[in-house]
């Protein structure tokens, strides 16, 4: 039973999976852990754009699921009120996120996977050109924060199984000890977060599997609220 078989939490050698989400608002402030406002049923002027940026079904109409996802994004990124309204401030924040966000990602290393912990998003780029994403991810929770820095994919397992947490980790790509990109069942928007791994929707994890290879670099930056 090797180290990677016990994966996704790393305390010396080990690490595991969990997650977070993203939305829009009115006034930008420092990230806060305050309870978000009640969900709005109003369709915002940037509804379609925000739905697309968050990987939601794009129909231009505010649903309860849309509101929950948008509200979570707003709460995690200090946008107030965090009511799930797809307004101009949230859209502007998501546009900055799509461009790489503050801190950025190296543009001189060829193919690289970028992970922005502050916004809970990831994308793949070649130089300065984005080739996939951004997509929602779920990184480590308090006491199990995903470590920042420049790493490399060093091990890949299509159907990995964590013996530590007794859970499947499809499309696992390890880049920092027991920390890996991998798919999860269920929502990547549910709190509190992983035990270090970068959790992804199955379709996104598969796309990463197809686009990345052993030796490709991974840059993790920023800080998730609450970690």
UniProtKB/TrEMBL annotation:
Per the record's keyword annotation, is Cell wall biogenesis/degradation included, yes or no? yes
Q: In which pathway does it act?
A: Cell wall biogenesis; peptidoglycan biosynthesis
CDD domains for the chain: YkuD_like
Q: Which residues form the signal peptide?
A: 1-29
A Gene Ontology CC term for this entry?
A: extracellular region
Q: Which GO molecular function entries does the Swiss-Prot or TrEMBL record give?
A: peptidoglycan L,D-transpeptidase activity; transferase activity
The active-site annotation reads 182 (proton donor/acceptor), 197 (nucleophile)
Q: Which residues form the L,D-TPase catalytic domain?
A: 110-221
| UniProt keyword annotations, A-Z | Cell shape, Cell wall biogenesis/degradation, Peptidoglycan synthesis, Signal, Transferase
Q: Name one GO biological process term.
A: regulation of cell shape
The entry's protein name is: L,D-transpeptidase
């Amino acid at each position: 039973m090797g180290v990677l078989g016990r994966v996704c939490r790393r305390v010396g050698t080990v690490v595991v999976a969990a997650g977070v989400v993203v939305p829009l608002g009115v006034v930008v402030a420092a990230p806060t852990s305050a309870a978000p406002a009640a969900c709005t049923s109003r369709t915002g002027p940037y509804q379609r754009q925000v739905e697309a940026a968050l990987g939601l079904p794009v129909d231009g109409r505010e649903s309860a699921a849309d509101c929950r996802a948008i509200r979570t994004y707003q709460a995690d990124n200090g946008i107030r009120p965090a009511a799930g309204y797809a307004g101009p401030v949230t859209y502007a924040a998501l546009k900055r996120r799509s461009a790489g966000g503050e801190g950025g990602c190296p543009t001189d290393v060829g193919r690289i996977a970028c992970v922005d912990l502050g916004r809970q998003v990831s994308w793949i780029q070649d130089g300065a050109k984005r080739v996939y994403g951004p997509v929602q991810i779920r990184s480590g929770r308090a006491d199990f924060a995903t470590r920042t820095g420049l790493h490399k994919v060093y091990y890949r397992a299509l159907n990995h199984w964590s013996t530590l947490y007794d859970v499947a980790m499809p499309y696992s790509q390890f880049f920092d000890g027991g920390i890996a990109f991998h798919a999860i069942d269920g929502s990547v928007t549910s709190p509190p977060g992983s035990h270090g791994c970068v959790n992804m929707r199955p379709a996104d994890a598969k796309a990463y599997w197809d686009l990345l290879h052993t030796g490709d670099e991974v840059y993790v930056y920023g800080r998730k609220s609450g970690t």
